[in-house]
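quick one if you have a minute, typing this from the bus. below you get a single protein, a line of residues and a line of whole numbers that encode the local backbone shape. could you go over both lines and see whether the tokens make sense for that sequence. anything you notice is useful, everything is just below.
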Amino acid sequence: MVYVTRRAEFCASHYYHNPSLSPEENRRVFGKCNNPHGHGHNYVLEVTVAGTIDPATGMVMNLRDLKEILESEVLDAMDHKFLNADVPAFASQIPTTENIAIEIWRRLAGRISTGCLHRVRLYETSDLYVDYYGD
């Protein structure tokens, strides 16, 4: 098994808010992240595809194809967006780094046809990241 990882970067803003909590409880739980005007991050995304090397191409997956999938499924949808309002999945769930990683997996899983989606790693800052390996 060979693992191939492609990296992409995007910027997005969001805020944490649970409508079932009171305003005071939201502020207590989420602190500054509950600011309704949002705050932004420069995200770094790593997507890993696992598989065997195709003897005809010498590749697990053509990285150009993976780049195009990342651009159409993730970057076009999330880069320079207010996630709470601009990404439908986050109208009903809090756009935490964990939930963003899961949403990225969901968007990519059906599009990877060569190899197998192995991991989505999303860095929110240089010292915080989430790994998601599917359900």
